[in-house]
Design brief:
The protein is mainly β and 86 residues long. Helices cover 6% and strands 29% of the residues.
């Protein structure tokens, strides 16, 4: 994105771009160094969004397929497994 494109968006103190969540309409302030296709979370409804266009500034909801989710391994230490827990 060139400087002309950045200057055409609503800036806040030269640090952020302001837009709205397409799902809940909450105000979202984006960092000035955000790039197209970067992902952000809506602070109001916690939906995952992606910056899909600069003109107009457009956030789109990321569609998540539950079958394709990849979970990172977490270290639970020495917690014993108990089948009765589930």
């Amino acid at each position: 994105m060139d400087e002309h494109e950045k200057s055409s968006h609503h800036r806040l103190n030269n640090f952020a771009l302001r837009t709205r969540c397409p799902k809940c309409n909450a105000q979202i302030d984006l960092k000035d160094d955000i790039d197209q296709w970067d992902q952000v979370m809506c602070p109001q409804c916690d939906v995952l969004l992606v910056l899909t266009a600069w003109r107009p500034l457009t956030l789109s909801v990321v569609e998540v397929d539950e079958n394709e989710l990849v979970y990172e391994d977490e270290d639970f230490g020495d917690v014993p497994w108990n089948d009765d827990m589930f």
